[in-house]
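User: For a teaching handout, I'd like to show students what a predicted protein-ligand complex looks like in token form. I'll give you the sequence and the SMILES for adenosine-5'-triphosphate. Please answer with just the structure.
Assistant: Understood, here is the input followed by the structure.
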Amino acid sequence: MVIRTENLTHYFGSQPVVKSLSLQVPEGSIFGFLGPNGAGKTTTIKLLLSLLQIQEGQIELFGHDLPGNRISILSQIGSLIEQPAIYAHLTGKENLVNRARLLQVPVSRIEDMLALVHLKDAAHKKAGNYSLGMKQRLGIALALLGDPKLLVLDEPTNGLDPNGIIEVRELLVKLVAQQGKTVFISSHLLVEIERIATHVGIINHGAMLFQGSISELKNISQPVVHIETDQTADAANLLKNQGFSVTDAYETYLSVPYTSKENMAAMNALLHQQGHQVYSIFKVQKDLEELFLNITQQA
Ligand SMILES: Nc1ncnc2c1ncn2[C@@H]1O[C@H](COP(=O)(O)OP(=O)(O)OP(=O)(O)O)[C@@H](O)[C@H]1O
């Protein structure tokens, strides 16, 4: 695991904002750290980057304890949290030159970074005049300059237009596929990262509600049978009396958790036999966004 935390807990005053968090981020993954605003994502990221002191619990990065190996660990992490730290009066390239000197990395890497984030043409423009998307890409280039193994990005697509979002996404996929990096990316929108994330952790009110691969997340999305019928209250009672668990009964339709196609046929036959009109009966699979909202609203 590139990141492993055990029972990480953090308080602001007496309020716990991160609660017993046990994160597991595999090497080579794009880990989407998801949760609504105020869920505790930035606080967790600041703990991982040693920008906040650990109060309770453990953090291991690259298999080593963070507090005892701070310098060597942090030198292998590139990060972008909140606004990228960019000098507005310097050009994009000068910003990179500045950072390259600081990190003592060869200046030759700068051209590669500019090409990677598609800023070659804008290299000599003042960064203060960049669009938000360009600033974000420059921020990612700065984070990548030291060739880190792990990239930690806090809501990197916040405020970007759809094209900017696509560019950042493509860049991250490329980094993992071609350079074997691990990417830890936070977002409050599942749709923004579901296409690229290999793993997700869903957090709300500081607690982890789900953690696993994207396919594991999809597996817990139980399909539902949607039955459009008449007299739904009676129809719901009829089905319940026969052992089916009706989860919702509205004026025009009922929903029942899907178990098998045979059970779908049995419900259809039962309703017909008892004089109900079945206008439609079909299986619905929740999409991931709906699942994410369900998970975060339950907490
Ligand atoms: N320095 C601080 N002092 C006191 N409370 C704080 C501080 N920083 C954050 N909080 C509170 O901790 C909680 C978690 O905030 P955090 O920024 O970690 O959430 P988040 O998931 O990153 O949300 P967002 O997407 O809005 O940034 C919030 O209730 C926030 O108000």
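For the handout, you might add this sentence: The pocket of adenosine-5'-triphosphate is lined by residues 12, 17, 35, 37-43, 188 (CB under 6 Å).
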